[in-house]
C-alpha cells in the first residue's frame, strides 16, 4: 500500500469531497422540504390530489435511483428539460428522497396523540396554528431518528451521480484508480470519507434530538 499517491491527487479528491457534501446538503434539504409539502398535502388536501401524490410516492420508491437519474438526465431533453450534470444530480436526489421523507413525516403525524389535536380545536385554534405549534414539533421528535437515518442513506446515493459525470468523490476516486491502478488506496480514502461523514451526521442528529426534546419539555 502506497499512501504517498494520495498527496498527488489530494486537490482532486478534496474537490470531490466538497462537491459530494454540497450535493448531499442541497439534495437533503430540497427533498425534505418537498417531502414535508407532500405529506401535508396528503393530510389536508383534496382526495384526488392525495391519490396523485400516493402514485408519485409508489412510482419513485418502486424504481432504482440509477434508473430515475438516467431518465432525468438522458431522457429529459426529449421533453425539453436540458440540465447540466450537477443540477440534474441535485434534482435527482430531490425527487428520489422526497417520497421517503414524506412517509417519514406521515408516520410522525400518526404518533401525535389525537387528543391533543382535538383539544386544540376545542379551544379555537386554527388548523394552521395546530400544524405549526403542535403537529410539526411533536411529530418531528418521533420522526427525527428516521429523518437522520435516511439522510445518511442519501450520502451514499451521491456516488451514483458519477454515472452522469458529476465530479463528486466517487468520480475523483475512479479517475485516480484508472490513472494509477492503485485501487486499494483510492477506495480506502472513499470508505474513510463516508465513514467520517456518517459519524458526523449521526452525532449531530442525536444532539438535535436531545435539544428538541429538552425544548419541548421546557415549553410544557
UniProtKB/TrEMBL annotation:
<keyword id="KW-0813">Transport</keyword>
<feature type="transmembrane region" description="Helical">
    <location>
        <begin position="180"/>
        <end position="201"/>
    </location>
</feature>
<keyword id="KW-0812">Transmembrane</keyword>
<comment type="similarity">
    <text>Belongs to the binding-protein-dependent transport system permease family. HisMQ subfamily.</text>
</comment>
<keyword id="KW-1003">Cell membrane</keyword>
<dbReference type="InterPro" id="IPR035906">
    <property type="entry name" value="MetI-like_sf"/>
</dbReference>
<keyword id="KW-0029">Amino-acid transport</keyword>
<protein>
    <submittedName>
        <fullName>Polar amino acid transport system permease protein</fullName>
    </submittedName>
</protein>
<keyword id="KW-1133">Transmembrane helix</keyword>
<dbReference type="InterPro" id="IPR043429">
    <property type="entry name" value="ArtM/GltK/GlnP/TcyL/YhdX-like"/>
</dbReference>
<dbReference type="InterPro" id="IPR010065">
    <property type="entry name" value="AA_ABC_transptr_permease_3TM"/>
</dbReference>
<dbReference type="GO" id="GO:0043190">
    <property type="term" value="C:ATP-binding cassette (ABC) transporter complex"/>
</dbReference>
<feature type="domain" description="ABC transmembrane type-1">
    <location>
        <begin position="17"/>
        <end position="202"/>
    </location>
</feature>
<dbReference type="GO" id="GO:0006865">
    <property type="term" value="P:amino acid transport"/>
</dbReference>
<feature type="transmembrane region" description="Helical">
    <location>
        <begin position="53"/>
        <end position="74"/>
    </location>
</feature>
<dbReference type="Pfam" id="PF00528">
    <property type="entry name" value="BPD_transp_1"/>
</dbReference>
<dbReference type="GO" id="GO:0022857">
    <property type="term" value="F:transmembrane transporter activity"/>
</dbReference>
<feature type="transmembrane region" description="Helical">
    <location>
        <begin position="135"/>
        <end position="154"/>
    </location>
</feature>
<dbReference type="InterPro" id="IPR000515">
    <property type="entry name" value="MetI-like"/>
</dbReference>
<keyword id="KW-0472">Membrane</keyword>
<feature type="transmembrane region" description="Helical">
    <location>
        <begin position="19"/>
        <end position="41"/>
    </location>
</feature>
